[in-house]
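quick one: EPU bound model?
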Amino acid sequence: MPKTQKFRITGGNRLKGTVRVSGAKNAALPLMAATLLSSSKHTLRGVPALKDIFTMAELLDDLGAVCSLKKGTLEINTESIDAFEAPYELVRTMRASVLVLGPLVARYGRAKVSLPGGCAIGARPINLHLMALERMGANITLEGGYILASAKRLKGARVYFDIPTVTGTENVMMAATLAKGTTIIENAAREPEVVDLARALKAMGAEIKGAGESVITIQGVKELNPIKHRVIPDRIEASTFITAAAITAGEVTIENVLPEHMDAVIEKIKQTGTEVKTKGKALVVKGPERPLPANVKTMPYPGFPTDMQAQFMALMTVAEGSSIITETIFENRFMHVAELRRFGAEISIEGHTATVKGVDRLKGAPVMATDLRASASLVLAALRAEGESIVDRIYHIDRGYEAIEKKLRALGAEIERFKD
Ligand code: EPU
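yep, here:
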């Protein structure tokens, strides 16, 4: 059996000090895929050193690109793309690999991408991505677990998403930049990561209107220039640190944030009695001795993000009363509940709704991470819990939180990584 890495966390310390948020994983991944739209040398700044970023770089390398990441600057040379396949082994470890589909078909007229299949948080189909590309004239077939897509040149089309899909919107927006004619995406996702991608594409010469609204209009152009872009700060990492300050009754300054991307989380966290003050691009957070309960329902942006549901639930486990947490985006995103119970949390689930009855104290326990955000929630609970906790399978957290234990340790947390 290979050794797995774990965290040993001794809870009870109030976090204090200053932490700097990294660039957003979910903004960087589509930007990396967008480099396929123009055969040139691209530069992305503020890119976090994360497992998912390395997986996307490996995928681009397989396609013939050359990637190098140094101190947050990612250079990608896409002058010699000579393969068009996203293999099962990579897509299986990271669903966002599917983001190369739109750019490859738009720029090279062909792509072969493994079907992602289900994952720990739900079935997560990509039917909407495929429907949209078909509308745009792509010929799509499924063969041996792979999507085969081809098109001489994509055509603009009107695309309606019955669910506002984030990566679907990004895939279609990228594909449409090089299509012939106008593409209109209705009920588009409005996440800041979609807007950041549109900003970079526009700087490449793409014609895009409405990103950040629910109708995006893209006028196709013949070719695009290289990308030079700084990735937006990670609103989910920032929100996780807010919650870390809140759950430890700490006092933390969080730098490199865009508070306007975090309204839903900031408003909700304030209801728990946590003080959050905005100082330009920083937040000053002071946690209460014990949080007040607050109900939460996850929604597409600008609603409360599903990527913060597990962490917020960790906070509610020690609230002075009961809270109701409803997950509306993914059908199976309560895997952390059974693990949170191991700390002594009282949580019951009925369908998509969890009722959390706040308890006085959590007790350290051995727990197991099941997905990226679930693992963050376990770390948060362990920071509050009395005594020692061991969090297993932390490779999940390394997918999306850069140097998490170093950042927490600098704030006074007792946390160490070890191999078992
Ligand atoms: N959906 C469909 N059909 C599709 C596409 C989506 O039914 O073709 C459904 C999904 O099953 C889900 C809902 O639509 O129920 C929304 O999913 P969406 O497509 O928006 O999710 P995604 O694009 O696959 C991104 C983030 C996720 C984040 C979700 C929701 C990236 C790389 N991933 O995923 O991030 O949870 O949006 O905000 O941007 C994470 O970082 O931990 C993470 C999972």
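Residues 5-22+233-419 form a domain with the UDP-n-acetylglucosamine1-carboxyvinyl-transferase; Chain fold (CATH 3.65.10.10).
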